[in-house]
Amino acid sequence: MFSSINSLLILLEKLFVVIGSIIYFIFALIIVKQATNFSKYIKDIFNTVITVVSMVHLAISGILVFLAFSLLMYH
User: Fold this and answer.
1) Contact 58, 1 (CB under 8 A)
2) Considering the entire predicted model, what is its pTM?
3) In terms of Cα–Cα distance, which of 5, 8, 15 is closest to 73?
4) pLDDT digits over 23-71, tens only?
5) Cα-trace Rg, the chain
């Protein structure tokens, strides 16, 4: 009995990780949108740096979503 409850809890934990990483990816998309709007309307020497950092953040969060899905599928 504990084996089935344990496996159910592990599955729920993995689903929460996947859902959390998807929400974090959406957050990263919003950051990219805000950074590009900032760069469009405010002229500063750091606009390129802010845009690049937000794009790298988006890429890392995309990798996180991929790893979360692979955790769900393979274990």
Assistant:
1) no
2) 0.84
3) 15
4) 999 999 999 999 999 988 888 888 999 999 999 999 999 999 999 989 8
5) 18
